[in-house]
Amino acid sequence: SQTIHQWPATLVQPVGSPLSLECTVEGTSNPNLYWYRQAAGRGLQLLFYSVGIGQISSEVPQNLSASRPQDRQFILSSKKLLLSDSGFYLCAWKSSSETQYFGPGTRLLVL
Amino acid sequence: AQRVTQPEKLLSVFKGAPVELKCNYSYSGSPELFWYVQYSRQRLQLLLRHISRESIKGFTADLNKGETSFHLKKPFAQEEDSAMYYCALKGSARQLTFGSGTQLTVLP
C-alpha cells in the first residue's frame, strides 16, 4: 500500500534562516506530488506541483522553492524565511483516479 | 480560470439536524468535484467525489451544473461529523483547486 511521510512534524525557525521540509512517498512510482500551505481562514493553497524528477511548477510567487531530486522525494525550501512563511505545510500525491492523498503535515513557526 | 467558493467559514448545527455545506465553482468546461475532510488530529482525506455518486458516512453531494454548485448534505448530523471540510475542483489542469474550507461543529 502507498504511504506518504513528512518531516519534521514541527519546526520553529528564526526569520532569515533557511528551510528544508521533506516529503517521501512509498508504494507508488512516478507520482504527481504537491506542496500546499494550509492557513486558518484561507483554506488550502497550492504552492508547487511536480509530475516527475526535476519538474517543478510553481503556482504562486513567493519566498519558497521546491525540488524533486528523486522520483518519490519532494522538498520544500527557502534560503531566508519570512514571518509570513509560518503555517501548516502539506504534501500530497495523486493516484490515477485523481484522488489526492495527504501527508501528516509540518507546522512551521517563524519567529 | 478555476475557482471554488465555500461561503461559510464556520457552521454549527445541533446533533440530529440536517446539515448542508455549500460549494460553488467557476469553470467553463466539465469539472470533476470532490469533498475532502480533515478531522481533528487526522490527515486531510477524500470524503467523496461526484463521479462516484456515492454516500459516505451519510453524506451526499450532487453536482448541479446549472447552478455550478456541489453542496454537501447530510440529513442527520452526528457529533463525529465535526471537522474541516474542503470542496475541490479538477478542471483541465493537473492540480486541484480547493475552496477556503468550512469548519463544521455539531453540537450535542
Describe the protein's architecture and organization.
With about 110 residues, chain A is mostly beta strands. In chain A, about 0% of the residues lie in helices and about 60% in strands. In chain A, the strands form 2 sheets. In chain A, strands 2, 4, 5, 6, 9, 10 and 11 form a 7-stranded mixed sheet that branches. Chain A has a 4-stranded antiparallel sheet with strand order 1-3-8-7, with no helix packed on it. In chain A, β7 and β8 (about 75-80) form a beta hairpin. Chain A starts with a strand and ends with a strand. Chain B has about 110 residues and is mostly beta strands. Classes of the chains: A mainly beta (about 110), B mainly beta (about 110). At the A-B interface, β4, β5, β9 and β10 of A face β5, β6 and β10 of B.
Calculate Rg of chain B over CA atoms.
13 Å
Can you tell me the overall shape of chain A?
globular
Strand content of chain A: over 45%
User: Class by helix and strand content of chain A?
Assistant: mainly beta
The major sheet of chain B is characterized as:
6 strands, mixed
Oligomer: heterodimer
Report the uncertain regions of chain B: none
Spans of chain A of 5+ residues with little confidence (pLDDT < 50)?
A: none
Number of helices of chain A: 0
Mean pLDDT of chain B: 92
The whole-angstrom Rg of chain A is 13 Å
Share of helical residues of chain B: under 10%
How many DSSP H or I helices of chain B?
A: 0
In percent, how helical is the residue content of chain A? Answer: under 10%
Distance between the termini of chain A: 38 Å
